Amino acid sequence: MLAYNFGTDHPMNPARLDLTARLAGEFGLFDRPNVAVVPPRTATDAELETVHEAGYIAAVRRVSAQPDVPDEERGLGTEDDPAFAGMHEASARLAGASLQAAEAILAGTALHAVNFGGGLHHAARDRASGFCIYNDCALAVRHLLDHGVERVLYLDVDAHHGDGTQNIFWDDPRVLTISLHETGRYLFPGTGYADETGGPGAPGSAVNVALPPYTGDAAWMRAFHAVVPQITRAFKPEVIVSQHGCDGHARDMLTSLRLSVDAQRQMMLDVAGLAREVAGGRWLATGGGGYDVYNVVPRSWTHLLAIASGEPIPLTARVPAAWLRYLRERYGQDGPPGMGDGAELWWRSWEVGYDPNDGVDRAVMATRKAVFPHYGLDPWFD
């Protein structure tokens, strides 16, 4: 999976996957008796065509074979998505892993499945975008739908709007997409406003909470709990597919949010709880963005793996010394001492009241007013 590599100067550094796997290994997560580690397979062109145009896949193959001949109209060979030899195979392998996760859930061989190398939510039907070549999230959702699942919730907590996945299912009432993100007024991809609520055949199927820059833990968690549980319970998904980009962290170089690993971990626990409550526990989780590759990403996604396998790692746990030594010897970096940031996670419940002078509250209310009525919910009180 490390072959998905745009180059040493690109923010999407595959070291984040190496370090996540090694940290999870140091905590013994892969040796837990209820965990199976499955080698990823490469998605076929026919599978990719369930969400991507055949001409686009052919273009990825061409650029993959000739990276010095870009196709910028399709987003291939750009600054965000540089061309590299073997790009098709590397991208299709990440996509194949999310398909395997969906297959395991459908077969009942797994209740939870995680592909932390996935979460490439910007890729569109016909072009690459935002470090994403093939949209593995959409592929997993489509596979679930094509094999009998009637309602899927796609929940995206990456700092960037999950535009590619939303647009692919824009007019499909079987898919509810919820994205909490930094407002597109200042941040790529410039979309994800409250009035984006789904196509004419699926009103209310897209939910967007566009939060202001510098939103921290308490405000983010207030927004999450003012929108996500209510809509999820009303929609009653049979499977939850979630994208856990961790680029909303205060240390991340590409966003202006101020989240902690502690808050990211809490959202994972909340999603797991919602899956138990409404979806019979069926939960497929992916990674996503995250560009502090040495400090934040490995800790966040190790928490994801631990939570998915049923035994969370305490925030007070120390980062294993062996992992810290590897980080210094291999990458020349000092790592974090603990698995948490020591953050205070209390947040003000929506029931306390709406503050029109608060930018986060205004964003939340805009979303609730745009979407809640579609589900028979009151934007002010439910």
Automatic annotation (TrEMBL):
Gene3D superfamilies: Histone deacetylase domain (3.40.800.20). GO terms for biological process: acetoin catabolic process; epigenetic regulation of gene expression. GO terms for molecular function: histone deacetylase activity. Coiled coil: none annotated. It holds the Pfam family Hist_deacetyl. Keywords: Acetoin catabolism. InterPro entries: AcuC, HDACs, His_deacetylse_dom, His_deacetylse_dom_sf, Ureohydrolase_dom_sf. Pathway: Ketone degradation; acetoin degradation. Residues 10-306 form the Histone deacetylase domain. It comes from the Bacteria. SUPFAM superfamilies: Arginase/deacetylase. Belongs to the histone deacetylase family. This is Acetoin utilization protein AcuC. It comes from Arthrobacter mobilis.
